[in-house]
Design goal:
Helices cover about 40% and strands about 20% of the residues. It is of the alpha+beta class. Pfam families: baeRF_family11 (PF18855).
C-alpha cells in the first residue's frame, strides 16, 4: 500500500468514467493482521448499496465488489510491520480496477459514487508529505542520511559521503574512543569538526536539491553546532534532533523527528496565512462563488480551503458533486497551489490569492 504523490492525485482527479467509488476510512479498519476486517466488509457493503441506489447495472456492481474484496484481503507476501504513522486510507474503485493509498492524515470518513473520484482528502494527505525531510544522523563514528517522511522511513544512498570523521582526516587513526577523544581536545578540534561538517554538506547537497527536501540534523554537541554553522546559505539546517543517534533505527529516527517535521509543516502553513493577510485586498477573494469564477478563468495563484467543507453541487446532466472537491479539482487543473487549512477563523470555507485582479460579483 503506497502513500499518495501529487502526480497520483492529479491522475485520480482527471479520471472519468461510470461508477467511480470513493471511500475514505481509518487505516486500522481496512487492513489489520492477515484477515479482512469486519469494518472493511461493512464499507464494501455500503459501497455496493450506493452503487445500486445510483442505478449501476449488476455487472458493474459485481465488478466493483470483486475489486474491493481483492484489495481488502491482506497479501500473503506482505513484508514488515504496519507503519504506525498511517492514519487513513483512500479507496478508489471502478469496474476496471481498484487502488488503495495510505495516508498519514486523519481523513474524514466519506463515501461517494459518481463519474469521478473525491480527491480533497487525498490531496491533503499528499501535501502533508511535502516537502520531504531528510535527517542527517551524524557522529564522529557513523553517518547516515534518512528520509523520515518516506513510508516506511529509509536510508538514502549518498555517493562520496564520509562515513566517519577519519574519512576526511589524513591521519592514521584506529577509530577507537581514546583516539577520537584526543581529536576533540587536540589542536583546533572545532576546525576538524567544521571540516568534517563541510564535507558532509558538500556530499548531501545534490540529494537535497534533486528531491527539493528540507534538512534536519540529528547529532550531539559540538558536532550539531558545527553542522548548523557550516550549512550552505541556500540549504540551511531546518530542524534538529539533539543527541547521538548511532544506535537508533530509521523508524526510531522518524519517530524522534516527527515533532520537528510537524513544526516545519506548521511554519509553512503560517507563512501562507501571513501571505493571505498581507496581500492587497484587490488580489484576495473569500466568496466561494467569486473564487470559483476566478479559478475557471485561471486567475487563482493559491487556493486556501478548509478540507472539512462539504456542500452539494450539481454537475452536467444533473450529476451530484461536492462543491469543495470540484473547486480543488479546478485549481489543480489550472496550476494553482492548494493549501488545506484547518485553522478556525482563517478560511471559512475558502480563500484565494489571485494572479491578477478580476471583476467581482455585483462590482
Amino acid at each position: 500500500m503506497l502513500p499518495p504523490t501529487e502526480d497520483a492525485v492529479r491522475r485520480i482527479a482527471d479520471d472519468r468514467g461510470p461508477w467511480r467509488v470513493t471511500a475514505y476510512a481509518p487505516a486500522h479498519e481496512w487492513v489489520r493482521g492477515n484477515r479482512v476486517t469486519t469494518a472493511a466488509r461493512s464499507r464494501i457493503r455500503d459501497a455496493i448499496v450506493a452503487l445500486e441506489q445510483a442505478g449501476a447495472p449488476p455487472e458493474a456492481v459485481e465488478a466493483v465488489r470483486a475489486r474491493l474484496e481483492q484489495e481488502a484481503s491482506p497479501p500473503s507476501d506482505a513484508e514488515g510491520p504496519w507503519d504506525g504513522r498511517i492514519r487513513s486510507v483512500g479507496i478508489f474503485a471502478s469496474p476496471d480496477g481498484c487502488e488503495v493509498l495510505a495516508m498519514t492524515t486523519e481523513a474524514p470518513e466519506r463515501l461517494g459514487v459518481g463519474d469521478r473520484y473525491l480527491v480533497g482528502p487525498l490531496l491533503e494527505a499528499a501535501l502533508a508529505e511535502r516537502p520531504p525531510v531528510l535527517v542527517l544522523a551524524a557522529s564522529e563514528r557513523a553517518v547516515r542520511l534518512v528520509d523520515v517522511t518516506a513510508h516506511p522511513a529509509r536510508e538514502v544512498e549518498v555517493p562520496g559521503m564520509p562515513r566517519e570523521l577519519t574519512d576526511v582526516e589524513d591521519l592514521d587513526l584506529t577509530g577507537d574512543r581514546g583516539t577520537l577523544a584526543h581529536l576533540r581536545v587536540s589542536e583546533d578540534p572545532k576546525q576538524r569538526l567544521r571540516s568534517f561538517s563541510r564535507e558532509l554538506h558538500r556530499a548531501i547537497e545534490p540529494v537535497l536539491r534533486e528531491s527539493d527536501a528540507l534538512l534536519a540534523v540529528a547529532a550531539a554537541e559540538p558536532l550539531l553546532s558545527a553542522l548548523r554553522e557550516t550549512a550552505p546559505e541556500a540549504l540551511p539546517v531546518a530542524a534538529a534532533v539533539a543527541g547521538n543517534r548511532d544506535a537508533d533505527s530509521v523508524d526510531r529516527l522518524a519517530e524522534l523527528a516527527a515533532p520537528a517535521v510537524d513544526e516545519l509543516r506548521a511554519r509553512a502553513l503560517e507563512a501562507q496565512l501571513t501571505r493571505l493577510r498581507e496581500t492587497p485586498p484587490d488580489l484576495v477573494l473569500r466568496d466561494p462563488g467569486e473564487v470559483e469564477a476566478a479559478a475557471r478563468e485561471g486567475a487563482v495563484d493559491t487556493l486556501l480551503v478548509d478540507p472539512r467543507w462539504r456542500e452539494a453541487a450539481t454537475g452536467e446532466g444533473g450529476a451530484s458533486l461536492d462543491r469543495g472537491d470540484e473547486l480543488i479539482r479546478l485549481a489543480l487543473a489550472t496550476g494553482a497551489r492548494v493549501v488545506p487549512v484547518h485553522a478556525a477563523g482563517q478560511v471559512e470555507p475558502v480563500a484565494a490569492v489571485l494572479r491578477y485582479a478580476v471583476a467581482r460579483q455585483g462590482g
